[in-house]
Amino acid sequence: MENKELLRRFPFKIVDLKTNSFSEQNLSEEEIQDFDPNLVEFNIQPGFGFNKKLNLIKVNFVITYLYKKKEILKIDVDTVFEFVKKEDLDLENKTILATVLGVSFSTIRGIILNRTIGSFMNKIYLPIINPTEIIEDMANPKK
Q1: FRET partner for 12 with CA separation of 20 to 30 A, picked from 4, 28, 93, 137?
Q2: Cβ(118)–Cβ(86) below 8 Å
Q3: Residue 123 in contact with residue 30, Cβ under 8 Å?
Q4: Closest to 72 in 3D by CA, of 11, 34, 33, 24
Q5: Which phi and psi angles does 25 have, rounded to 5°?
Q6: Which of 116, 130, 87 is nearest to 23 (CA)?
Q7: In which band, very low, low, confident or very high, does the pLDDT at 120 lie, cut at 50, 70 and 90?
Q8: How far is CA 71 from the centre of its chain?
C-alpha cells in the first residue's frame, strides 16, 4: 500500500501521548482475596481541545475505577491527533470526533494494562464503549 493511499484512508495520526497522572490504590491481601471485579464501577470523563491552526485535536480522558465507592485506580491521559489536511479537521463531524475518542480510549486501555503488570488490577479491563453515544451525550447534556 502506498503512503498516499494510507493517508487517504487514515487522515490523522497520534503525535503526542501524555499520561498526566496515574494512581493505583494498594489493597490488603484480604481485600484482594475477597475482590469481586463485578463490583468495579468506571467513571469516564472525556474532554476535547482543538487547534485548527495546527490541525490538532486533543482528547483528554480522566478515568477512575471505583470499588465499593472507593477509588482504586485513576488515570488522566491526553492524546493529540494531527490531521494531515486542514479540510479533514471538521469539528462538526461527529464521526471524526467519535473516531479519535475511540482510538484514545483504546490506547488508554493499553497504558493501564502496561502500568498494572504484576498487580491484581491487571485483570480488570476497561469496558467497551460506544464513542458515538459519548459524543451525542456531550453535544446534548442532560439538564
Answers
A1: 137
A2: no
A3: no
A4: 24
A5: -80, 130
A6: 116
A7: confident
A8: 18
Cα dist from 45 to 11, 63, 64, 76, 135, whole Å: 26, 6, 9, 9, 12
Mean pLDDT of the chain: 87
> What pLDDT, in 10s, does the model give residues 58-91?
999 999 999 989 999 999 999 999 987 666 666 6
Global pTM reads 0.85
Say what percent of the chain tops pLDDT 70.
Answer: 87
- How many residues does this entry show for the chain? 143
CA distance 99 to 101: 5
Q: What's the grid cell of residue 105? A: 480510549
Contacts of 76 (CB under 8 A, 6+ apart): 19, 20, 21, 22, 60, 61, 62, 63
